[in-house]
Design a protein that fits this description.
By secondary structure, the chain is α+β, with helices and mostly antiparallel strands. Helix content is 35%, strand content 16%. It folds into two domains: 103 residues, Phosphorylase Kinase, domain 1, CATH 3.30.200.20; 195 residues, Transferase(Phosphotransferase) domain 1 (Transferase(Phosphotransferase), domain 1). Helix 1 packs across helix 2, helix 4 runs antiparallel to helix 6 and helix 4 packs across helix 10. The two termini are 36 Å apart. The structure holds adenosine-5'-triphosphate. This is mitogen-activated protein kinase kinase.
């Protein structure tokens, strides 16, 4: 694979060299706790380590020692809870730059470092948005990424109609492979799978982004209950009576809800946020209408949206599911569909 960032962000190359707790070595068992959270000493140390590679941008295999003033602002892309994303150019090369203000709050800082860490170590996954490098200044952290065309929630908003099943088939493959990669290669779960964290580029390539609240797995389980958007959390993460740990199957639930939202054009629960969360915990999980969708599609959604996490399929099983196998074998032109819907919605 063409590897665009030799920096590997935080001093990482093909093999992570830094003995940092920020970087789990794939060769060791996953057992680095989510160390950086809430521990200001750790956060400071990790930040100092990361600063060593600040300004190294690797584009088309060439590493440039860049300065922030060489980034030319082109336009705003959007804002999230952690920062702002803008389109910039560096020596005529277009990038999306996510700027996150530095803060003295070590939890917030650990989110920024986690986002940076995961995107950097995932350079070899074609289903995760690519990082060219980053800048750490006195005031903020700026992550330079490949510039995608849009995220799926904005696209839904814009086209105001559901995505066709064949497109959902293709994007399911990419997202399941991205999540599977994070789990098997880095022992990480995403914890914030939702349409706004799935990006699409103009050639129809689909990628996962936004790793600020990703969690390290300890003996395959994650422990922080608070991280993530509650509306996409599995019932086991919302239920106050549940113990504090959960596993990748919580991301499988979030994936299932995302598929329903894309297939129907709307988030499946209504009411206030509290009512929606209560429905997730107590009501029957959403299902697709079998008169409108193929049996395989209805089935994969049912397999993801099981109230009992142990009944949900894991990634290996999802990758073997008939819905995924069917769409892997079909030549679907996502690029053409995307160009058409963008044109129709102008
Ligand atoms: N690499 C990228 N290329 C193009 N657009 C991007 C890229 N990364 C993020 N965006 C867009 O920028 C906007 C802000 O993204 P960001 O990840 O900061 O927040 P979010 O995911 O929307 O919200 P939150 O962080 O609260 O979950 C989103 O609309 C997202 O689609």
């Amino acid at each position: 694979m063409d590897r665009d960032f030799g920096l590997g962000g935080l001093g990482l190359n093909d093999t992570p060299k830094m003995p940092s707790k920020l970087v789990p070595s794939p060769r060791q068992p996953p057992l680095v706790p989510p160390t950086i959270r809430g521990n200001s000493h750790n956060v400071q140390t990790l930040l100092e380590q990361a600063e060593k590679n600040s300004g190294a941008l690797t584009i088309h295999g060439v590493t440039h020692k860049a300065e922030i003033k060489e980034l030319d602002f082109m336009e705003d892309i959007g804002h999230g809870s952690c920062g702002t994303v803008t389109k910039c150019s560096y020596k005529s090369f277009t990038m999306a730059v996510k700027t996150m203000p530095r803060t003295t709050n070590s939890y917030e800082m650990s989110r920024i470092l986690m986002d940076l860490d995961v995107i950097c170590i995932s350079f070899d996954c074609p289903y995760i948005v690519r990082c060219y490098g980053y800048f750490i200044t006195t005031y903020d952290v700026r992550v330079c990424m490949e510039c995608m065309a849009t995220c799926l929630d904005r696209l839904l908003d814009r086209i105001k109609k559901p995505f066709p099943e064949r497109i959902i088939g293709k994007l399911s493959i990419s997202i399941i492979k991205a999540l599977h990669y994070l789990k098997t290669k880095h022992q990480i779960m995403h914890r914030d799978v939702k349409p706004s964290n799935i990006l699409l580029d103009w050639s129809g390539v689909i990628k996962l982004c936004d790793f600020g609240i990703a969690g390290r797995l300890i003996e395959s389980r994650a422990h922080s209950k608070t991280a993530g958007c509650p509306l996409y959390m599995g019932p086991e993460r919302l239920d106050p009576n549940n113990d504090d740990s959960y596993d990748i199957r919580s991301d499988v639930w979030s994936l299932g809800l995302t598929l329903v939202e894309l297939a129907t054009g709307r988030y499946p629960f209504g009411g206030s946020e509290f009512e929606m969360m209560s429905k997730i915990i107590h009501d029957e999980p959403p299902r697709l209408d079998p008169t409108m969708f193929s049996p395989e599609f209805c089935d994969i959604v049912t397999c993801c949206l099981q109230r009992d996490p142990t009944k949900r399929l894991n990634y290996d099983q999802l990758l073997q599911h008939p819905f995924i196998l069917k769409h892997e074998g079909v030549d679907t032109d996502v690029e053409e569909w995307f160009a058409d819907v963008m044109c129709d919605s102008e």
